Structures are given as C-alpha cells and as structure tokens.
Batch of 4 targets.
Target 1
Amino acid sequence: MSDYVDNLGLDISQERAKKALNIHPATKTNGINYAALVNARAKERLAKMKKSLTLTDAIQAKNRYKWGKLPIGLRGMLLERVFYHRGQGMWWYDETLDQHFFLPYALTSEGENSIDFYGQYQLVKPYPFNGKAESNKKSDGKRTTQEIYLGSITRVPVYDIDELEAYIAKHGEEWCRTHLCVIGRDYTNMTSEWNEPRANLQQVFIESQAEILPMMRTAILKACMPKLVKVADEGVYDSVIAELQSVEDSILAGKTMIPVTSFQDLQELEDKSSPAIVETMLRVWESYDNIRKSNLGICNDGAFKKASQILQDEQDENKVRTDMILEDGLTNRKDLAEMVNRLFGLSVTVEMSDSMNKDKEVEEDGRPDDKDVPDQDVQ
C-alpha cells in the first residue's frame, strides 16, 4: 500500500490518513476509557441527586416547629439543626459569658458513677457542633479557645420537670443554674442515651429515592426515542430532512393535515412499554417521598397510593400516623422549653410552624360534611 502511494507521488502520513477517515486515537473521551468516564459522570449525578434530596429533607425537618422568645445567642434554626443532625442536645447557662448554649453532649470521664442503673448519664459535657472538644486540635497540638472552654464544662443533666423540681428543692435555684443542664431530644428515645440523628435515619429513603431518578430518566429517553427513516441514497437525504422539518413546523402551527411527497419507511426504535415504566417509576418515587415525609410527621397520601379514589378511612389512618410523629417531636420540645423556663427564668415558646398548621387546615377543610353530600335517590 505504501509503495502504491509513493508511486502516485502522494505524501500522506498515517496520522493524516486516520484523520481523513475520521479515525481518532483512543483517548479518555472517545477511547477505551469512555465507559469509565460515563460511570464517573453517572456517580457524580447520583451524588448530586442525593444532596438535593438531603437538602429538601433537612429544610422540611427544620421548619416543622416555630420557636419564640429565645435568649440572645440562640435561634430556633440553631436548635433544630442540633436536633436534626445530632438527635439531642444540652441547654446550659454560662455566667461568665452571660449566654445560653444548646450543643451536643457526651458522657464525661469524671467520676466513677457517671451512669445510673437505667443507663442515663449523670455527668455530661458539651462538644462543638462539628466535632468533640477532646479531639479537635490544631496541627501544632494546641487547643482552640472554644475547645478549652467546652472541655472545662461539666453539668448534671436533667431529663424531666419533676426531677428539676426535686433538684431545686434540695439545692436551691442559684446552685441549679450553675450546675445543671437541661436535656432536649428530637424524638422519644429508644435507648437511654442515644438518639440516632434523623439526618442519618432518613438517608436510607433518600438514597433509594435518588436511585429512582436515573431509572426514570432512562425510561423517559426510551419513550422519546426518535424513529429512523430509511432513505435510498444521500441524494434523497436532504429532501427527507426538509420534509421532516416541515412536518414538525406544521405540528407546532396546529395543522391537522400535512401533505408529504417523499414519504419513506420508518423503523421504530420506541419501546412500547416505556410509558408504563415511567408511570411506575413516578409512583415509586412518590411512595418513597411519602415514606420520608411520614418519618418527619408531614401529612401525605401514604406509601401505597392507589390509582382509584382513596377512602376517607384510609386518609384518616395516614393522618393519625403522621400526627403521632409530629406531636411526639412537639412534646419533646415543649418539655425542653418548660424546663429551661423554670430553671433560668425564661419565657421560651414552641409550637407548630405555620406551614404545618396550614396543612392541617387544608385537610380538615377538605373533608366533606354530611350536609354537603347531596341526597341520592334510592332505587
């Protein structure tokens, strides 16, 4: 072949020949590593989907309750952030800084009787929201001012109002304000001193829900697959392209009859089952989303929503399940507010947020009364 090219007097290199034949060398984007690149993009896209759903879940969880009359240095969103990401926290007052704090806590190593017979901590110490006071050190081995401060604090935890009243009766209010802290939890705990953060518990549903999106996208792409038009040769190619463009323009213009002159055979690439798969994926997505909302106490249509009309008894059952979770969180927060108000002389309030109350009002208003139901003739 090279002798033939030389005899013709053509100076064509191998690189120019491959370029003329549209043959490109293997690279990361068009060679043997293309599959790895596609997989990396898919993983990145899935990770972003999970982050987006996690953000939605955090926003919904942190805005279920509304706090009021909090002391300087504390905001309702700070309290809810500790609840959502850490599950529980300790509230104490520092006289030196003249400030109230609410942070995660851990068992202190001081004393031999730090845990009672029920597994409850008897002495606790706070740690920063993003770490522990004992482990967060700079590269030079020195501890920050915050770490030194939190590491020096030890408090006796109080878990309910009756226990607090007993401490006040025994030691007096002044001693209790400087030696006690109030424990607040996101939900009723299962074990004595560990509330799994809701942010961790929700991840299993968030991850499953995020995996539905790529499947749904694939099904939609298959449902929207274009048709192949078989043409005789390249000469007919341009006329067919123009004809198809004319068809698309006519459809957009609202025309119901479209004349064609060079109609060709169409080869279907569409998967007939794709529309049904897309609908199934949408229902699965909605089911996962409803399960996630149920864990937050947010009203929804339930995990297994039927295509037909849902009976009123089923709606009531779903509502009761979510209300119990929502009321449980409110009860724990009210207990915290009651104890800190008694111990520190505050007037902290907490109630359902406006959005949660609106959801309840919509559900209650949406129920048909007996008088609104038209009488039916008995046949």
Note: DSSP finds 13 helices and ten strands in the chain.
Target 2
Amino acid sequence: MYQCQKCKKEITACPACKRHIKDKTSRIINQITGVLVVITIIFVSLEIKIKEETELAMKPFRQAAEETKKKEKIKEASLPKNSSESKKQSKNKKKAKSRSSGKEGDFRVGVWGMLRSVIAEEEKATPLEVRRDPYNLDYLTKIGNYEVIAQYLFSQNRLSGGCYILIGQRIENYQNLRKNTKLKVGEPCPSWVKLDFQYYEEFASPVLNSVAAADQFFYDMYISMASQMGAPYATSLRDLEASIERNEKIESVIGYERMLYYSWKTQRSKVNFYFASLKGIPYFRLEYLSKKSKDGKAP
C-alpha cells in the first residue's frame, strides 16, 4: 500500500507508478509480439522453401511416370491402323484379317502376294486419284490425329509392299536450326522423297507444323515400332545413335535437309521407318515390304 503525501490517504498505487507500469507492460507486449511475428515469418519461409525443394526433387519422378504412361498407351495402340480396324481390334485385340484369305494382314487388309483387284475391293479407306505410280493403290486414312497416305505397292500384279506417308507444313526460318547444331546426321534427302513431295504435298498435314510437332511424331512412332519389334537391326546413324541428343537429330534433319532411317525384321516382312525434310518440310514414311522383295528399301 502507498500513502499519498497530499491527501494523506492510502492508495494501491500512485498515478505515476500506474503509468510506469502500463508503459513497461506495453513495451514487453510489443517485444513479445515482434518476436512472434519474426518466428511466424521464419516458419512460413521454411515451409515455402521445403515445398519448392520437394517439388524440384519430385519433378523427375513425375516426368518418368508420365513418360511410362505415355509409352504404355502407345504400346497398346498397335499403330498403324485405320479407324475401322481400330474399333474391331479394341474388342478382340487381334490383327486384322483379309476377308478373302482369312489370314492376318501383312499391310492393312493385304497379304503378300494378294492380287491388286482383291486389295481394291477389300480396302475401305478413301481412294486417291493422284498417284505417283498409277499401278499402285493410294488411300487417305489416319494414324492417330494425322491424316496420312496409305499406299499399296505391287509387283507383277501381286502385293509386295505398303507404306504410310505423312508430309507436314513448312517450318519458318528452318535454316536457323543450323545455329543449334553443326552436325549433319544420316544421309542427304534422296530423290524418291522429292518425288513424293511432287505428288502428295497437297495432302500435307496442318498439325505437323513445327519442330516440336515433328519431334513428337518421330519419337511416338519410333517407340511404337520398338515396343512391337524390339530394337532396330539397322539405322542410318549406326554407332552414333546413342551419342547424339534427341533435339540434335530433329534439328539437323530439318535444318540441313537430311534423312534418318530405322529398319526391323519380322517373320514375313521388312519394316523401314524414314524421317526426312525438304526445304523445311518434315516427311515421314513407315514402310512394310515382303521379305521376297528385292532390296527391302524404298524406291
């Protein structure tokens, strides 16, 4: 208890002490609040940093998982096939059979050695009047989202091969890709590719219009073929295949007008996959040939 010197009364605290106590308490509260704010900021910063580091660490695993799912989808797709065959195969997961022979098709509805007239009767895709070789049969069909040309090849009126041809759009400033790589992969663009351009460029796909689109189609098709038939027995890159980066292959082919090929063998067929470019326009050809054909390569 305190006694006021002026009124001689006992009081619990004099006004001065009360003010002092309040001021001191306020400062203590402010200090505690400041410390809590600093601690909160530190914890929030640590939480953000941990989330960022976790996201960075998990990124490769997510990408790997996405790539695995993508490969599984491509593997299940069993490319190439037209839309009508796709519906049938999705039900029973068997290769299409020729209605006349009852055998599994070597190329679409065709079996090696089948007569040209039988192919013309059985194939249901849209026929094309414009043909590089009037003796062959050309049709417009689809691989995935891409419209492609399906071409039946004949020797002495009998089916000896078939191929899918996909031509893209001209990539602007394609020569600038040479700044990214001085490597010229594969082989120079051959004359038979130039002939295909003369006859089929009017059917160029509007979707295949960039380096990224060409890269995606090339590797989707390669993965699909490799998943069905294993590693190719021959490539245009030979021992350099493993040492050249993915982007270098694409940019070199488009920038320098080159061609890559990959070849496989099955019990009945030789399979060649070509990726070329002419004046900045991507070109793809997936080719199936009877093992009885002469050289097993494109004309």
Note: Residues 30 and 114 are 94 Å apart (CA to CA).
Target 3
Amino acid sequence: MMITQYDTYLPIGGNCIPAYYLKKYGLRTEAYPLDWMVFDAHTFIHLFQTGFSDFFSSIAEEKSIEANTCRSIRDIVNGILSLHHFPKDREIAEMLKVFHRKMRRRYLRLHNRLMNSSSLLMLGYRQDTEEQVINTLLEFAAIYPHLSSHLINVSDTPRMASSDLRQKHYDLNDRLTVTCCYFNNSYDTENQKKLGLWGNEALWHHVLD
C-alpha cells in the first residue's frame, strides 16, 4: 500500500529522482515548475518566498552531453540547472519565452493547490544534514502555515549494503514531521555493479510504501 493520505505530493530536488518516483507511483499527477531540474534547498525556499519572481531571469548556456537533445541552461541568479526544457533545435530566446509562460502557470497552479490543501508530502534527494532537512521544512511551513507537512529526505550512503535502509524520524510539532532515509542509491553491492539512473528502486519503493 503506497502513501495515499496526503492532499499534495511535492518533489523538492535536488535532482529529478524525487519527481520520477512520485510520478511512477501515481502520487504526482501534474507538472510543477521545479520538476526535472537540479537545485539546492536554499533556492527551493527562496523561490516560494518570492513567488518565483526571479526564476530564470538571467541565464547562461553550459556545456551539455553531445547525445542530449536539450541544452543545459543555468539560472544564474538561483543556480538552478535545467537539462530538459531547451531543445537544441530551437533558439534559446524563443524557448525562454515559452518556458517562462509555462513555468508561471505551473507555479500558480501549485500555489493554489497548496493553499487549498490541508496535508503535504515533500520528497527530497539531498546530502543535507538532518538539521538542514528540518530547517527546510520549517522554512517552507512558514510560507504555508496551514499545512500538515511531512518531509522525506533520502541521502545516498555508498558505504551501506544495497539492501540496507536506515531511517530517523522527527516529530517537530503536531503538524510537521521529518523522515531522513539513508541507503546506497548508487551501487549494487550484491552484484558488484553501479546502479542505473534511478538508483536503488527497491528501497525507493520501500520508502514510499
């Protein structure tokens, strides 16, 4: 039985893995502005504090893998990296206008959804300390104080056996909870090989079970 008791499910980076797993298990049913991007927790909070007002307001193209069909575009102000939104066969200036309109719609839709929700599950994949994870939730709760929110953060822990999972849970108050999960998301220790793009799928499933 998957987690189903929340009104809204929000991937919070630092890369596209949380968005992938929430979609895979049918928990993310619409697109949000930070899906499939690389960003840190400070940027995540800043964007919601400012209503995404400076989101990709100044950009630069970075070197991308030749086989990729999209450019690597950096939000200079916020440090966000977009890997999937700027096709190489389209002009950047042309696509930036489309991108801004699309992401503004996504932000407003998400903001309205959060305002009309009573409960929220946030899923992150970061190497942040437990204190940093807790602070991320507290800062987000200050923006949406009406929500009962649970933040699950997964940290890649390569020294662990790929079948092992360690979790630490924090009840911050009667509305805010945090679960920090640690497992090897990069290497299959049993079969002695690197894991694929989406990491340790069995333990991601367990985390969301």
Note: The helical segments are 17-24, 41-49, 92-115, 130-143, 201-207.
Target 4
Amino acid sequence: MSELATTYWSSIAGWSPVCFMALGYAFFALNRNAALKRVVWPFFLGAVCVYFLIRMALHGPIQILFVIGPILAFIFFVGLRAAVFCPSCGSTFRNMNLWGGAKLCPKCGANCGEDA
C-alpha cells in the first residue's frame, strides 16, 4: 500500500469516530422522541466507551487496559444512570442525584421519574 493510501485510511479511521460522536450529540440534542432516545442511548454510550478502550489498546501498553477498563465501566454506569429523557417535551438532561430523588424537567417542569 502506498504512503498516500495509508495516510488516507488513517485519516478515515481517526475522523470517523469523531463524526459518529458529533452526529450522536446532534441526535440527542435535536430529536424530541424520548422513547427512541432511551433505546439508542445505551448503544451509543457503549460504542463510545469501546472506541476509547480500543484506542488505548492500540496506542499504549496493554497494561493500561487494567486501569482504563474499570474507569470506562464506571463512566458507562454513571452515563446510563444520569441521562434523563423527558417524555413530555423530549429534552435530554442529566440528573446529578444518581440514586433517586425528584427528576423534574428543567425545560417544561414535567415529572421524568421512573414512574412517569
């Protein structure tokens, strides 16, 4: 493979995840379908965590996975627990109280708890 082709594929491999994350951000910011967001969110968050895990495995010593793996698992858990999608207006926000408490939408004031 020529040097130009290698540079091309390196560029594609480097920018594709960035575009994926930007499109994901746009999806969660602009889409108003809360049910669809609840389905897509775990897969999106998991894909981002796996991307960073692979990136660390390819560009660092393999022992770094013993440190980065549990950190990414914690980030995944917190990301799943903190993301709240309002069923009324469809906005996405973070609940900083991970273990319960009132979840009121800051945009419309609707109840966004588990019983809503």
Note: The first helix runs from residue 3 to 30.
